[in-house]
Specification:
alpha+beta; 95 residues; 4-stranded antiparallel β-sheet
Amino acid sequence: MGSTKNESYFVFMSYDPEYERLRNDRTKRGAHELDLYLSRKHDEVLASTLEPGSYKKISSLVIVDGFAVEINEDQANVLRSAKGVRVVEKNEEVA
């Protein structure tokens, strides 16, 4: 069984043609639509996978279609098998 201590993880999503389409729109409106799309998409993955209130999304990462989230090791393992998730990696601090 994993740790129950919440730590920072990065979650990277699988290929998404809608993300690619929006990312290629270099207008201000396109950037805004991409931000909204990814934030909603990432929130939906978390809400459909983890218990409400058990995690804290830190940010969506537009350049790589991913997000940073504070979760525990068990939750990271659950996210690894979630539909659309490619990689879940613990944020390792470099000293």
